[in-house]
What we know:
Layout: H1 12-39, H2 44-53, H3 71-84, H4 86-105, H5 108-119, E1 125-128, E2 144-148, E3 151-162, E4 169-175, H6 182-187, E5 193-199, E6 205-208, E7 211-213, E8 227-238, H7 250-286, E9 288-289, E10 292-293, H8 298-326, H9 332-357, H10 367-378, H11 385-399
Parallel strand pairs: 1-4
Antiparallel strand pairs: 2-3, 3-8, 4-5, 6-7, 7-8, 9-10
Amino acid sequence: MARLAQTAGLTDIQQEILSTVRDFVDKEIIPVATELEHRDEYPQAIVDGLKELGLFGLMIPEEYGGLGESLLTYALCVEEIARGWMSVSGIINTHFIVAYMLKQHGTQEQKDHFLPRMAAGDIRGAFSMSEPGLGSDVSAITSKAVRDGDEYVLNGQKMWLTNGGTSSLVAVLVRSDEGHSPEEAAAKPHKSMTTFLVEKEPGFGEVRPGLTIPGKIDKMGYKGVDTTELIMDDLRVPADRVLGGTTGRGFYQMMDGVEVGRVNVAARGCGVAQRAFELGVRYAQQRHTFGKAIAQHQAIQFKLAEMATKVEAAHAMMVNAARKKDSGERNDLEAGMAKYLASEYCKEVVEDAFRIHGGYGFSKEYEIERLYREAPMLLIGEGTAEIQKMIIGRRLLEEYRFQG
């Protein structure tokens, strides 16, 4: 039987990269993922292996020591990694968003300084928008930067940083009302935001003067990868660490990065759903009831058919969104649709696989129990379903505006 979620039109190099990643996932990630996840242990050996494969530089241009591959190649690699353990795909996602933002919006000095070490995996990236008092309403950010000579002084509390502890470079979005009156800043909050490139030591506690990373947030799933807060208390950042060198552009830079992130989350949903299908279809052929494998019962066959169809549909939309971004076209509609569909279908496919396992699905001895706790994160990460629907709806009204 042909494997689900195949992608047409790949180059020989793309196929070779994917084959290498798939081998790595099958041999190095799947056998240890559940044990590490139950211990909430950072997968250092796996991360070292990804570094050896060059995956931290996958989308970074060759002139900076990367592989110069497309978003599609990256998304397909993420799909494979998430099939093994979604937390590992999270470790590389925020790194790639920061690298992408640097590549697209950074000054030449910023690119020269950061990208070669990011490509080698020596610098790991994280990015930070959310705060304790806001969810999807980015315009409500209260963290602030104030100019003081050749530096900015940053104050505020950020939330939900993936790789908050293990990263050494964080792209932080804060309010900077420089050049705007209070009235202008209140009327157009998106135009008074700036992204700062904050370097720090990996670890927890005070990682540089004025910057504290408290301990890991304890989560239902998505374990292994560190998710943290970030507290800035008179944190001084040089003015040349404003992304792109100009204040007031941070919101748009971050949204560009989030579009890449949404394709990534869609790819993660595809990978987790694929693994859930694999577990479900295998267990259905091993488990016997009423004298035959449960896979021979029509009710289970219907369930498997629905699961496989959802895996295929989500994969197709994810690939389409990645290719649209690679073409240089606006892809917020496609990325929103892909993220929305893939995360919802992932949840449904995982639950169906859980149901196929019956009582054993509730046991920590079975891998599906881990997937059942991981899938809900995808419903929230990089924007909830409701946010995706708002984006999709607005874009559809732009495209189908009634001229009456």
